[in-house]
Amino acid sequence: MTTLAMKNASAPRRDLKLAALKTVVFLLALVPLARASWIVYVGDAVNPVEFITRSTGTWALSFLLITLCATPLRRLSGWGWPLRLRRMLGLYAFFYGSLHLATYLWLDQMFDWGGIVHDIAKRPFVTVGFAAMLLMTPLAITSTQGWMRRLKRHWGQLHKLVYLVALLGVLHYWWLVKRDLTQPAMFALALALLLGMRLMHWRQNRRTPT
Which of 13, 37, 38, 183 matches a 20 to 30 Å C-alpha distance to 199? Predict the structure, then answer.
């Protein structure tokens, strides 16, 4: 069997494995939501609204940072599958962020738009949280192959906003927490490492002779 024939024969197996991996990741990404829903349902959450708000916000930021891990992991390992999961993970970040925002608007503020506007204007952590969701929205909308074809090279430029979204997300969490900063600090450290790796890669490419 020729090399080309062997590659063609193995392609369906790779596609099947990738489809199975995507299915597993898709289901696992719903576990935090199922767990939070169950805790609220059985009455184990002392303050259900606060618990849902914190849980969805934490997982939105977690999935955002996991998404940013895809490129460094591919560069370090040579594996291609992390990039195949990046879009799904990014959409889950937006999904949990949308739940986080909806919980605030509905269950916390009861759609009191005057109070919401006041919060955005007067409370910095709310301001940066809204800014992060505002910037994340076009990234979610343009995550499809169709938008990649339409925007061409501008697609990559637009999606660099994900770094600013992550920075605003970490800042939102840091300013929200008033006492124990352990978890926000861990997110900040993770983001600093990810951005540092990208900066090192960029500097190495600049030094490489053409």
Answer: 183
Q: What is the C-alpha separation between 70 and 166, in angstroms, rounded?
A: 14
CA distances from 35 to 28, 30, 146, 169, 171 (A): 11, 9, 34, 23, 26
- Structural element, H or E, at residue 43: none
Structure confidence by residue, pLDDT tens digits, 69-109: 999 999 888 888 889 999 999 999 999 999 999 999 999 99
Number of Cβ atoms within 10 Å of the Cβ of 187: 19
Distance of alpha carbon 80 from alpha carbon 181, whole angstroms: 35
22-52 pLDDT, tens digit each? 999 999 999 999 999 999 999 999 999 999 9
> The tokens 């069997």 sit on which residue?
1
d(CA 26, CA 89): 8
